[in-house]
Amino acid sequence: MSQRPVLTPEERALSYAKYYDLPITPIPQEKLAILEGGPIDPSLALKIEDRNDLFLPGYLPCETGYCVMPNGTGYLANRTEMPGVTPEMFEWWFAWHGLNDMRYRIWDPEDHFYARQQNPDKVLDPSVPMREKTWGTVHHVLEDVGGGPDELILNFRYPHELGYDESKVGTPACATMMCANGHGPVPGQGVAAIMTHMVREIEGGIELRSRFWIGYGLVDGQVVKLLPDGVSVPPVVPMGLFAHNLKEFGHLATILPSLYAEEKDRW
After folding, report:
1. What is the C-alpha to C-alpha distance for residues 35 and 29, in angstroms, rounded to an integer?
2. How far apart are the C-alpha atoms of 156 and 192, rounded to whole Å?
3. Which of 1, 48, 156, 260 is an S-S bond match for 213, by CB 3.0 to 4.6 Å?
4. CB count, 10 Å around CB of 141?
5. Mean pLDDT per segment of 10 residues, for the chain of length 267 residues?
6. What is the CA radius of gyration of the chain?
7. In Å, how far are 11, 29, 163, 180, 246 from 113, measured between CA atoms?
8. What is the largest CA-CA distance in the chain?
């Protein structure tokens, strides 16, 4: 377990600082077994070309697991049940947490350092619908997914910009969606990824279906493979991101209902 930095008096005074002190929600045993069991068969993975299959009813062949694909790119999937969470809570969280470093830190106090929204005026504009407060904005992030703190830029996109059928968002097929083109602070260096968090309503809450395609990015409006042919992502890369995803979203599922109730009107 990582050592949590001591909060400053200013941070401790924040109304939500108490969430920083909570123990991390344990990862369910069945998910730990998947992590410890090693990579899935790549034939079970959702190819990026088929990403709109996320809108199909039911479930895809593998909803939780990671692997390196035959073309060398990395892949991971994770399905997280979030009891007591609504689609609007999830949309609010993505809009709210980028406005103060501590908000990102309470999500995973051991591995998150900051997420800084570069377009705060859009987030704070009351005329912008909740989910669109994140669509089209940029987060500068510092987090540790296993290899030490890493800087990351998340270019959140409108779903259609990443090739999704946006007309399905806000329907029974997909209550809401957050998707981004992620890359390091210097374009062309480090490993890029396409990230998708897709939400469906289930009895008593929501299910979050996350997908990451590592080695892909958005170029001139098209999702393309950026990883050079013949190069392969080391398996530890999708494995580390998978482990981090299990941890951070399991913990968010625990804290979000009460956090939203207390903070939803405090921007």
Report:
1. 10
2. 14
3. 48
4. 18
5. 84 98 98 98 98 98 98 98 98 98 98 97 98 98 90 97 98 98 78 96 98 96 96 96 98 98 98
6. 18
7. 13, 27, 31, 19, 18
8. 52
The letter for the amino acid at 180 is A
Q: Find the DSSP H helices in the chain.
A: 9-12, 29-36, 87-96, 101-107, 120-124, 236-263
pTM: 0.96
Structure tokens at 2: 């990582």
Write out the two tokens for 234: 């080391």
What gap in Å lies between CA 154 and CA 169, rounded to an integer? 20
Indicate the length of the chain as a whole number. Answer: 267
- Judge residue 4's burial from the number of C-beta atoms within 10 Å of its C-beta, 0-12 exposed, 13-18 middle, 19 or more buried: exposed
Listing DSSP states for 98-147 in one string gives GGSHHHHHHH-TTTEEEEEES-HHHHH-TTS-TGGGTTT-EEEEEEESSS
| Burial of 20 from C-beta contacts in 10 A (0-12 / 13-18 / 19+) | middle
Does residue 241 contact residue 143 with C-beta atoms inside 8 Å? Answer: no
